[in-house]
Design a protein that fits this description.
The protein is built from eight helices and 15 strands. The chain is α+β, with helices and mostly antiparallel strands. The strands form five sheets. Strands 1-2-13-3-6 form a five-stranded antiparallel β-sheet.
Length: about 300
C-alpha cells in the first residue's frame, strides 16, 4: 500500500479538494499566516454569525451575548438617553454632549466585539484598532446620518438666542399669511455708494409670511396694507409705493440688524430689503415645528 507523503497537505486516501487559489500561493502564505497569528483572531464566545452582525449595529448587544447583562443594559439605556438628549437639545451645546455619547457608546460596543477577536493580539494592535473604530463609527455612520437628516427631515436654525427646529419641505399650497418659514437669502446685495454702503449677505432667515402670490401691498408712513388689511411697518420697510406679489413668490420681510451704514440712504436700504423679501419657491427651506419637546417655537 502506498504511503502518504507527510509533507503533502492532501490525503492520498481521499480525492484532492479543489482550491480557490493556487497551491503555490497557499504554501507561500503559510509563513505570513503564522506571523500574524490569524488562527487566534476568533471570538472566545460562540454565537451565530447573525448575532455578531447585530452586535455591531445595536450598541450593548455584544455585552448581552457574552452574559454581561448589567453592562449591556446600561449601554443600551445610556444610548437611548443620549439620543433623547440630542433630539431635545438640538441647536444647543447639550446636543453636542448627546451626540458625543452616542458615538462613544456605539464605538465601545464594537470595540468590545473586536477585543474578543483580538484577545491574544499585541497591545498596540488593540489600541490602533480601537482608535480606528472610533473614527470610523463617527465618520462613516454618524456624520453621514446627521448630514442626511438635516438635508431631508429637519435642521436646527439659530436666530439670536433662539433655536428653531425646521421641518424640511413645505407644501406651498398650505402656506398662509402669518406662517413662519425658514428660507434662503440668496446672493449678496449692496446698497449705497463706494465703501460707505450696506451689504446684505447671503444666508438663512426665518420670519412670518406677510403676503402670498397675487396679493397687493400698499406702503404708507403709518402701516402696510395687504389687500386692504392693515399691518404694522417692520424696520426699514418702505413708507410709500405699491406692488403685487408675483406668482410662486412669497413676501417675507427679513429680520436683520443694520448699523454703521455710512452715507447710504434709508430709501436704498428699503429697496434692498424689499428685493430680499421676494422669496421664491426654491428658496423656501421648511417650516419650524410649532412645538419641539414642549418648547413653543412660533405663535
Amino acid at each position: 500500500m502506498a504511503q502518504a507523503n507527510p509533507k503533502d497537505d492532501d490525503s492520498s486516501f481521499y480525492p484532492q479538494r479543489s482550491r480557490w487559489y493556487s497551491r503555490i500561493l497557499h504554501r507561500a502564505g503559510g509563513p505570513v499566516r503564522r506571523r500574524i497569528n490569524l488562527r487566534r483572531l476568533r471570538p472566545s464566545v460562540t454565537q451565530s454569525a447573525l448575532c455578531w452582525v447585530l452586535s455591531l449595529v445595536v450598541p450593548g448587544l455584544a455585552f448581552l451575548l457574552v452574559g454581561r447583562r448589567l453592562l449591556g443594559w446600561l449601554v443600551l439605556a445610556g444610548y437611548a438617553a443620549s439620543a433623547l438628549v440630542l433630539a431635545a437639545g438640538l441647536g444647543y451645546p447639550v446636543a453636542d454632549i448627546g451626540y458625543g455619547l452616542l458615538v462613544s457608546l456605539h464605538a465601545t460596543s464594537i470595540i468590545f466585539v473586536e477585543s474578543l477577536w483580538l484577545k491574544e493580539a499585541k497591545l498596540w494592535i488593540k489600541l490602533v484598532t480601537a482608535l480606528a473604530t472610533l473614527f470610523a463609527v463617527w465618520g462613516l455612520i454618524y456624520a453621514p446620518l446627521v448630514g442626511s437628516a438635516e438635508h431631508r427631515w429637519l435642521m436646527p436654525l439659530r436666530e439670536g438666542e433662539r433655536v428653531f427646529i425646521i421641518r424640511r419641505g413645505v407644501a406651498v399650497n398650505s402656506i398662509k399669511r402669518g406662517d413662519w418659514l425658514a428660507y434662503e437669502i440668496a446672493g449678496d446685495r449692496y446698497a449705497g455708494e463706494g465703501e460707505q454702503g450696506m451689504y446684505l449677505r447671503s444666508g438663512l432667515g426665518i420670519d412670518p409670511v406677510l403676503a402670498l402670490p397675487g396679493d397687493r401691498l400698499r406702503f404708507t408712513p403709518q402701516a402696510v396694507f395687504v389687500n386692504d388689511q392693515r399691518f404694522p411697518l417692520a424696520p426699514h420697510m418702505p413708507t410709500q409705493g405699491e406692488l403685487v406679489v408675483p406668482e410662486k413668490v412669497w413676501f417675507i420681510w427679513p429680520t436683520v440688524d443694520i448699523s454703521g451704514h455710512g452715507r447710504v440712504t434709508e430709501a436704498s436700504i428699503s429697496a434692498t430689503m424689499q428685493q430680499t423679501a421676494m422669496v421664491s419657491q426654491k428658496q423656501i427651506i421648511g417650516r419650524p415645528f410649532k412645538r419641539w419637546f414642549g418648547r413653543r417655537q412660533w405663535p
